[in-house]
Amino acid sequence: MRHDAKKISVLGLGAMGTAFARAWLDAGYGVTVWNRTVGRAEALVGEGAEVAATATEAVRASGLVVVCLLDDASVGEVLADTELVGVDLVNVTTSTPGQARERAAWAGARGARYLDGGIMAVPPMIGTPDSGAYVFYSGSPELFAAHRDGLAVPAAARYVGEEPGSAALHDVALLSAMTGMFAGVTHAFALMRGAGAEVAPKEFAGLLVEWLAAMAPAAYGVAAQLETGDYTLGVTSNLAMMVEGNGTLLRTAEEQGVSPELLAPFMALMERLLAAGHGDEGTTGVIDLLRR
Ligand code: NDP
pTM to 2 decimals? Predict the structure, then answer.
């Protein structure tokens, strides 16, 4: 059966699936939706979506099927009994790279072309031009080429290779960096709640954002060191100096009555690296300490 290229089925109408479905509706696509809790489809029906009674029916309705569920287990559950031969299946449910690879093999064995996606946005950014939202995609290059225009409607589409786990790996690596940043921001605010802080949280937030943005390009320095294998390349703040500085950070935390537990793990790794004789490097060597 040939399908209309402007027809898309969306399975999963949580906050994210709903935002995706709405973006396609707004762009004039014919959208069929399915959700386990039927009531969540109501608003979209008012906006022109068709509702499928079952996941099987939703998969049959369109050549492009987008799945946005809670986790990989729910994807397995929802698609367990659906016929996937000839289907182009795009799974934007957050998963690990290993789960994505297994899901790709699973879909391939059922006759579907498969693309895995990692969404770099929150729902209000979806379908909002210039919001900076994008989705990493990896898997079937043929599927991506066939649907790239449609996929780019809710958020920009960044294809990161045929290896199906690649999108999830990019996604999780960026989220992990974000987690570290949130830890730093949390510690900084905790310090500023203590004695002697006269700056309002909002004003301090401005300073934080400015400082983090100024420091973020340090990632390019790490990349250059990894690419050359020379961890002393371009070092402006060496490890020996930084470990010394950590003492000041820790003493300040103590003075302000703040637990050092968010900083301590990274500082311990820096000390191990210094003890191994890398005082003239930066922190790039910590990457090698982390890799087991
Ligand atoms: P929600 O919690 O809002 O929605 C979860 C969806 O999964 C609902 O449609 C729910 O159905 C469905 N679901 C859960 N378990 C099952 C199951 N066993 N069988 C059938 N359906 C099931 O989550 P979001 O929409 O926010 O997230 C969806 C995906 O998008 C996740 O993988 C998330 O990590 C990812 N994502 C979300 C972001 C966000 O900011 N929200 C950001 C980036 C990625 P029901 O309505 O019946 O409960």
Answer: 0.94
